[in-house]
Amino acid sequence: MTGLYVVLGIVVFMILIVIGMYNSLVRLRNQVKNAWSQIDVQLKRRHDLIPNLVETARGYMKHERETFESITNARARAMGAKNVGEASQAEGMLGEALSKFMLVVENYPDLKANQNFLALQEELTSTENKISFARQGYNDQVLSFNNKIEMFPSNIIAGMFNFTKSDFFEIEAPAEREVPKVNFS
Q: Could you count the other beta carbons within 10 Å of the beta carbon of residue 25?
């Protein structure tokens, strides 16, 4: 009879371990979703600011049609992204278009002195910083979740209940990966 109690105790203990691991995986998955929603809020704010910035600049920059179209197209792609991978790529392209836009702005001193433009530029800079912090928080949550999915013994539970790895949110503009060229001649 004591053997039956021991077996029953082991079974109950194993069930409690499985429940604990499952709940831990659910908690981490929900933290990843929450962290993504924090990024999404900041990206929405960024997407809302861009048209105002462009419209303010448009009056000063009459001959920069290509620059405006580039930003508009990149913004549309970013707003239409369906998953983290698409968003990463689209936001990288949008960031690159904004960088080029800011370089062109340097050629227009009247625009750089415009109070509306300066306020929008400051808002955009602040939003970019918030996106950076939110992205870091999201990627930290993804790392914890992915580690839990891959590590023994929780990987067994993750496989049983179809938990899948989450993608990191990496914005990579092609120019960021290029090696700077130094020329002293």
A: 19
Count of C-beta atoms within a 10 Å radius of residue 37? 11
Distance separating alpha carbons of residues 56 and 117, to the nearest angstrom? 6
Sequence-ordered list of residues with C-beta below 8 angstroms from that of 123, at least 6 positions apart, any chain:
49
pLDDT digits (tens, 9 = 90+) for 9-35: 999 999 999 999 999 999 999 999 999
**Is there a contact between 171 and 91 (Cβ–Cβ < 8 Å)?**
yes
* Torsion sign across C-alpha atoms 122, 49, 173, 42: positive
Among candidate residues 8, 37, 23, the one with its CA nearest the CA of residue 148: 23
Domain edges within the chain: 28-171
> Is the pTM above the cut of 0.85?
no
